[in-house]
Specification:
Two copies of one chain form a homodimer.
Chain A lengths: L7 H13 L15 H16 L3 E4 L5 E5 L7 E6 L13 H17 L6 E6 L11 H6 L5 H10 L3 H7 L17 E9 L4 H5 L3 E7 L1 E10 L16 H19 L4 E10 L9 E10 L2 H21 L3 E10 L2 E2 L2 H14 L3 E6 L4 H5 L5 E6 L15 H22 L4
Helix pairs in contact in A: 1-3, 3-12, 8-9, 10-12
Chain lengths: ~425, ~425
């Protein structure tokens, strides 16, 4: 098939204008969900969509959409990402996906191409978990846990007015759910946030899955002895047990679990004095794996090792699960559509998993979902220095456009 | 020589009475220096000394003394320890040494034995470093750093009135210095605070030296990457570098430095989140060795290893010295006097070094100094459960008495 191209300079103008909203002195943006800058970015998106002659919509979870209706279509193919950022974040994370989705709709509209599904560019609410992680996409797939939401709102009475003012309708947020039968799929363009595409010399990443994340708090318990009077061999040093575990968790991953990671982000020593053997050390542990089989196997193996490392230093171990996010495989048909688009455009691609979470993992639970990555220079992420070459952004948008057209035509034969 | 014995039941009555002062529900005492309980314990000591017909004295560093004068003597043999405790500490640490010193003076007085030196039981101020470490014994040896004292008092304006009220005369504290020519020596009975005497089946420890302590703050600096998107091999994880160092410091000590210890009491991870590779980890490091040669060699070797461990994980290392306390060898003549007393009494002794600091390390810089240890059950220290069998306390007091008489007679031939 022949694929039209996006208007690279129009898209650049959009990208640059958006980067002004919440711009920071360091060259990034700071648009935490529900902040003034975030709301301004969403207003900007609505205005640009209207200026392009697209229908706009805000649902009860404050997800913002621009819609290109197709006569006779009954289902909708979603293209999207998010306009919120972490505090003091970069210009590309999320924003690129929304700008590209809008540009794809404009390009299709201008080209006169008819597709059998409605196209909707969507900006999901609070992808960066400023208040409630994936509030927008979770609501869209009907996956919101109302009990957790209610208890969050009870604990932080400042939240309800803030998110209501931002357009979230708490009393009817359930209505943000999209009927899966009404959806033809979801495609998201995003920066990689890691170094692999550049290392492999590929311009596009086809995401095979979004990793599963399993987190635990581990507490190593030894004995807080006097550091001067307790010989080395008489100690039960929780710091040594935790240190040994940190190293062995890494070894397990590197030797047996390629494509996975394990991270000890924090150890807290108690009592924490120069001259007292640490009696208790609390450790945060997070493992990520591209699929649930490896996610569970890795979790099991590092926890068993933690018990051995504790025992090896005369300590005991408490394990408290902290959180689970299941691995989300991307749909084969979506991956194929992205791959065909790359091949039609002559762009080098690489299949990889996403180590970070995305709205796509929510959408994947209900519809044909795919993700397109573009390279991040230095793998830098959540940082004002986050950067993607503009040519790669354009390539990403063109692949998004191509995959959209391919998936849209497929979609009419879908059950 | 024949050695008289202390009055064990009189000493027990004293010990129990003193343990009531600042007693805690857990069975210990809480008498931080300059607290109400501490001052009450010192009043109790003065009253008991006066009741025994001893001269009493308080110097400008608030050191409290009971003196048994000997006609014609020009020099003084000091016997002492401290009545302050750590917050929520035990009944034996310090208190035993003061009670035993008082009992030795009473026993000598009652026995009618004449020795060629004055005997002085002394309770030094703030051994546990509640305000200013070793304030009393440091002042007694003329080792007080007035600049540091002044800056401490400037930083904490509440201190000066508190310590003045406790008898410290800040404007003439220099006068607390004892002329070394006026001293015949210093002997201190103390609990071991460690497990070695009981392990060796010895009732008395003859301290060969008080360990040297060298402390550093180490900062391992890596890169705080996204835990999801940064593969293991692309990380510069400061937590792994610090963990590796913790283990290798232990290995260096255990393989090459017997009788020494190395302690990492605290690691502080930054940014310290579940999902961020730790970019910076600050580590407290303390090494202790019985002599300065090993103290310096151990310090050098672990710091060199820290650099290698940092580099091994792609990190850099900052080293900031935090404190030095030089190893204090006990005087050979004092050790011999203690050994002869043990042998005369038929008591099993063991030579060992003190892993904890004591007032004796101050006195050792100016006079013939020795320390006598008695066993600590379970090696428990700075804890209400700290415990020494009463028979061991009595044995310790008798050895203190014997060593006093031996050293006192030696003393007359001293230069």
């Amino acid at each position: 098939m022949s694929i039209p191209s996006v208007d690279a300079s129009r898209m650049k103008a959009d990208f640059d204008a958006l980067a002004e909203v919440g711009a920071t002195p360091e060259g990034g943006v700071s648009r935490p969900a529900f902040s003034e800058a975030h709301l301004a970015a969403r207003r900007w998106f609505r205005q640009r969509s209207q200026a392009a002659g697209l229908e706009t919509k805000v649902d009860s979870a404050a997800n913002h959409s621009a819609i290109l209706r197709q006569p006779g279509a009954t289902r909708t193919l979603l293209l999207g990402s998010h306009l919120d950022s972490v505090p003091n974040g970069g210009r590309f994370d999320g924003a690129l996906g929304v700008v590209a989705a809008l540009e794809v709709l404009r390009t299709v509209k201008a080209s006169g191409i008819r597709v059998p599904v409605h196209l909707e560019a969507i900006d999901f609410t609070d992808e960066e978990s400023s208040v409630f992680d994936y509030l927008g996409s979770r609501s869209a797939v009907g996956g919101l846990d109302f009990e957790i939401l209610r208890s969050t709102l009870r604990e932080r009475p400042d939240l309800a007015p803030r998110i209501s003012q931002a357009g979230v309708e708490l009393d009817r947020i359930a209505s943000a759910r999209r009927d899966p039968a009404s959806l033809a799929g979801y495609l998201e363009l995003h920066i990689e946030q890691g170094p692999r595409l550049l290392q492999a010399g590929a311009q596009i990443g086809i995401v095979e899955s979004i990793v599963g994340i399993r987190s635990h708090r581990l507490v190593f318990r030894g004995r807080p002895d006097h550091a001067g009077t307790t010989p080395m061999e008489a100690r039960a040093d929780a710091g040594l047990a935790a240190s040994a575990f940190n190293l062995s968790a890494r070894e397990i991953v590197m030797e047996q679990f390629p494509e996975c990671v394990a991270t000890v982000g924090r150890m807290t020593f108690s009592p924490g004095a120069f001259n007292v053997v640490p009696g208790t050390v609390e450790v945060t542990l997070e493992v990520r794996a591209p699929d649930e089989v490896r996610s569970r196997a890795l979790e099991l193996q590092v926890l068993e090792q933690a018990k051995r490392d504790a025992a090896g230093f005369g300590c005991t171990l408490d394990i408290a699960p902290y959180g689970v996010s299941e691995a989300a495989p991307m749909h084969t048909r979506a991956q194929q559509a992205i791959q065909r688009a790359c091949e039609a455009l002559g762009i080098r691609w690489l299949k990889l998993s996403s180590g970070a979470g995305h709205d796509a993992q929510m959408l994947a639970t209900v519809t044909t979902t795919g993700m397109i990555f573009v390279p991040s220079v230095g793998g830098i992420s959540h940082n004002p220095r986050e950067f993607t070459e503009w040519s790669d952004c354009v390539a990403g948008a063109n692949v998004l456009l191509g995959a959209t057209l391919i998936l849209a035509h497929h979609a009419e034969f879908d059950p």
